[in-house]
Design goal:
The complex is a heterodimer of chains A (about 325) and B (about 350).
Chain A: H1 3-28, H2 43-50, E1 58-62, H3 66-71, H4 76-83, E2 107-111, H5 117-130, E3 137-142, H6 149-160, E4 165-171, E5 174-175, E6 178-179, E7 200-204, H7 208-223, E8 229-234, H8 252-259, H9 263-273, H10 279-302
Parallel strand pairs in A: 1-2, 1-3, 3-4, 4-8, 7-8
Antiparallel strand pairs in A: 5-6
Chain B: E1 20-22, H1 23-37, E2 41-45, H2 61-65, E3 70-72, H3 77-89, E4 93-98, H4 101-104, H5 108-115, H6 118-121, E5 131-136, H7 151-155, E6 161-163, H8 168-180, E7 185-190, E8 197-199, E9 213-216, E10 221-225, H9 228-241, E11 247-251, E12 254-256, H10 260-270, E13 273-280, H11 285-297, E14 306-310, H12 319-325, H13 329-340
Parallel strand pairs in B: 2-3, 2-4, 4-5, 5-7, 6-7, 10-11, 10-13, 13-14
Antiparallel strand pairs in B: 1-8, 6-12, 9-11
Helix pairs in contact in B: 1-8, 3-5, 9-13, 10-11
The chains are: A alpha/beta (about 325), B alpha/beta (about 350).
Chain lengths: ~325, ~350
Amino acid sequence: MQRDLIKQFFYDMLLARRFEEAAAEQYTQGKIAGFLHLYPGEEAVAVGSLRAAEPGDYVVTPYREHVHALMRGITPNAVMAELFGRATGCSGGYGGSMHLFSAEHRFLGGYAIVGETFPLAIGVGYRLAMKQSPDVVLCFFGEGAVNQGTFHESLNMAALWKLPVLFICENNRYQIGTEIHRNSAVTEVYKRGCASGVPGKHVDGMDVLAVHQATQDALQHVRSGSGPFLLECETYRFRGHSMADSGAYRSALEMAELKARDPLLNLRNRALQEDWISEDDIEALFKKAHAVVDEAVRFAEQSPPPTDLYKDIYAQPLDVYRGAP
Amino acid sequence: MTRTRNADAEMIAPARPRHELMVWEALNLALDHALAADDAVFVLGEDVGLYGGSYRVTQGLYAKYGEWRVRDTPISENSFTGLGVGAAMVGGRPVVEITTVNFALLALDAIINLAAKIRYMSGGQFHVPLVVRMAGGVAKQLAAQHSQRLEHTVMNVPGLRIVAPATPQDAYWQLTQAVREDDPVIVLEHELLYFKKGPFDIHASAPPMHSAAVRRPGAHVTLIAWQRMVDVCLQAADELATDDIHAEVIDLRSLRPIDLPLLVASIKKTHRAIVVEEDCKFAGAGAEIVAALQETVFFELDGPILRVAAADTPTPYNGALEATSIPDAAAVVHAVRRMVGPREE
């Protein structure tokens, strides 16, 4: 196993965890407002999958997407500044936590209506297929989204036209407070593409190495022109759905069981055991992640707010009461 | 839904410019030219390909440009409209056909939550050069689920542009302009206008996409309409002229933005106005137009601006009842006579 890659995964997940903890702290202090959906517990999914993607690939995500943005190379400063609603944020302060964008990084946005990432992703895939481009689309969604019509509509079109889309389900078992067996007749999400003939696979979403390998395999399938693939990563969120949710509907026993499978702890223990990483390395990476996130908070706090309410509604400013220019 | 022919669409060529065209032919010509001019343009929707379009608007394009440029979709309005949004974000210029505005209700997430918001939410990093064409209006006894008008729903959404051509010339001009536009544009088409003939000049230069047009000048009252109601107003104006009442008929052409300056100029001349709309009166497009005008030209007016609009009902199937549910020339004439005063009756 390549030591550098392990170190990278470990640092990525440390950064992700620390970033989200800092966001929660800033929210509690009133510096971040609105809906804030945090990622602790699920880090192995974004890190493992996106580290397997190429820089030219496109990414579409739902609203719990800070870590995905970081993994695509958007700086912690730009993401944190967006959470603060500042002009230096990756969406200029107009999007917020749920709507991170970066054209430069082919990061096509976080979307806050469940099930929207499917049609967007097949649209990007359609354009790529039209141009016979080697790039592909990674389309993220939660297990709750597969009961929206767009899931079935979009998988059908993706399979029908063999579009280069990798559908990645982040199955954290809960659509807010409703557990998967209470909302889905079939709880194995990877099987739900079968009506459209989309092949699927299940992977342990708490194991970053497994997610990375499974994504590499799936991307090979998609990039080869064989059409879409559905990868289900079974994971767990340690916090509530958003900052407004305590997550009290889950038992202490369940929480303890899942926390014992913490993807960071798992990787740490295994990497030490296999001698891929040393305690000193871990200490250094931990310090680095803290320093980077502290700087991001400082940067966000010191950044100016956006001021133009009417910017970028249209390509050219448009007065609704003046038809002819 | 109307199917007007049985011939194999592949054997039928796109329309050619002539001095007189039907609206569907003008739209077909605009799409043909747009597809030829730019590889990024593609057309998608139900039955737009092999079948040639429910109203023939895409006739011959599938054979000419192939399946990736003219794509028959499954019946999945929300997702194929959303597909258009995604493709538009990465350099495509999709033209989505939604068979009727009634089906577009299934695609409002893609239109309102996605297309209209992405430029703003992304801080201007992504634009959505998407055209969504949809046919609407009361046609011939299609009943309540196939007869709606949707302008009020989309007018209230910042980020969208809305055009509503009423003539073949405008259909060609405005669809051509819509495809070149970097914002999402809704093109509202009217089912009863597709087979309406009108003069056409391929060489004439187009006015701005959103400007209104005076279809008939007049001094006594301004009639404001769009789509099929323009013809209803012109018919009413003919009849009123026999009584020496001269109505100025304005074809709005665009519903977001609205060409308010042209309306104001007309009212400064006539001092009276009526908005004639095919949609229900309550909270319809006419309400916005009247409110904006009262705010702007109140002191120019001899009386309140009125609305002649559809009855506040779903559209009935029965033909006679259906006809009474929407404005006709007689209703407009009646409203004008009441407004202009005791010349007659």
